[in-house]
Amino acid sequence: MGISGALNTAVSGLQAQSFALEQISGNIANSETIGYKRAETSFNDLVTDTSSGQQTPGGVTATTRATNDVQGSVEISDVDTFIALSGDGYFVVASEIGDVDGEPTFSDTDVYTRRGDFELDSSGYFVNGAGYYLQGLPIDQSTGNAAGSAPEPVQVENDFLAARPTTQIDYQLNLSSYPLTATADPDVAGSELLDATDYANDPTVIPATATDGFIQGSDVPVFLESSVAGGATTIYDAQGGPVNVQFRWAKTDTASTGGTDTWQLFYQSNSSATGTDPAWRSTDTLYTFNADGTLQSPVTDPLVDFQVGGTTVSDVRIRHDSTGLTQFSDPSGNAQLTSLGQNGYAAGELVGTAVNDSGRVTASYSNGQVIDIAEAAVATFNGDGALQTLDGGAFMATRESGDAILVDATNVIGSALENSNVDISDEFTKLIVTQQAYSAAAQVITAADEMMQEALGMLR
Which of 109, 156, 150, 106 lies closest to 131 in space, CA to CA? Predict the structure, then answer.
């Protein structure tokens, strides 16, 4: 091939180094682009078809080598909807192809990105700075699990969260085996009980509550002296109206006098009741305890129709758990709460959205509820280095990359962004090397040209 071959080889070197310079330029330009993956240059030599004794280089080609699997640094953000990935994977996103009645329409082809600067648009969709829409799997509100296997654009509706009436109260506590009520006298057997023997001939004593089911307004002072406070909670009716419920416990029988340790649970029905009007109502359940302080009965959680201040909340289950209600000795003589909560809430207005570290898109409401809306879709590839690069830091699957594999969003970091994985100092080093290689190839062309001129001069 001689001088002509040297010229061709040097020209391919100039082309390859120009390609490398282009990659370096792109990396430097995107050094601050969120989620950007730098492009490296791979050089491949070309060998002409010659004998083993006279092998001559045929030139060089340059190709792009992706660094999609190289993690960029992750920085915490104060924007709750920003997300990053730690480790492998890409967010599954959709590209907008148009709109109908002001609502975006999306391409059927999924694309993938590491750029996580998502924010809500006017339609409630999560869109990143490059215009790609986050996709996810909707959450089944009954199970709390992601439903289905086909990701779809995540949208948060700006609607009120409907009220949820209370159906269950979680109530765990310990009742002192000897309640220190105002009437309790250690020297008088049974004086701690609601219907104490000492009050048998007292006209103000409360009637047998197991049959009456309520405490009259006129009997409230005696009732308060013969019972202990059991905490308070707010439950909600069908329209989401709050209903304040105060509990009191009264012991009605004791093993120390030959009976069975028995308690009744009351709630305040009418704080202003007088005369024979019901002021406190029983839950109509007798609680009996074994000698070791464990609950003997009831064996199932009681259902109560709460009647408070003219409002009724029906079929509320009071859940104590198998070991949540006990009667152990307690020097304080009170009811010691360990848990008191309920599952209802009032209607609420949307006040905020976020993506948490589990990849769950959440909506926060003015009633204090935080609802999981969707789970961000995360995909991996067997050959992610072969993904096709698109504008805006997005990628498309190719035959070489293989199909997307959906995985759990366990490596999502909420309120964070992944920076570009470009190292400026490294790019400047490559720039110097590339410049020197380009200059050297140009020198080869100059030398080959001079040799060619010498050869032509011999003909004159």
Answer: 106
Strands 90-100 and 103-106: antiparallel
Residue entry with tokens 């609601």: 194
pLDDT in tens, 226-285: 999 999 999 999 999 999 999 999 999 999 989 999 999 999 999 999 988 999 999 989
Does residue 204 register a pLDDT over 80?
no
pLDDT in tens, 145-165: 999 889 999 999 988 999 999
In 325-425 the beta strands, taken as DSSP E runs, fall at 325-326, 335-342, 350-355, 360-365, 370-376, 378-380, 388-390, 394-396, 405-407, 412-414, 416-418
> Which amino acid is residue 127, in one-letter code?
V
> How far apart (Å, rounded) are the C-alpha atoms in residues 229 and 213?
18
Q: How far is CA 79 from the centre of its chain?
A: 15
DSSP 346-366: --B-EEEEEE-TTSEEEEEET
Which pTM value belongs to this model? 0.76
Determine if residue 392 is left, alpha or beta; phi over 0 gives left, psi from -120 to 50 gives alpha, anything else beta.
Answer: left
CA distance 421 to 114: 11
Average pLDDT of the residues of the chain: 90
Contact by Cβ (8 Å): 112, 92:
yes
Q: Which residues contact 99 (CB under 8 A, 6 or more apart)?
A: 105
Asked whether 102 and 79 are in contact (CB, 8 A), the reply is no
SS (H, E, C) 267-289: EECCCCCCCCCEEEEEEEEEEEE
CB 105 within 8 A of CB 99: yes
Length of the chain: 460
Contact yes or no for 250/207 (Cβ under 8 A): no
Q: At what angle do helices 424-457 and 2-29 cross, to 10 degrees?
A: 160
Strand-pairing partners, residue 37, are none
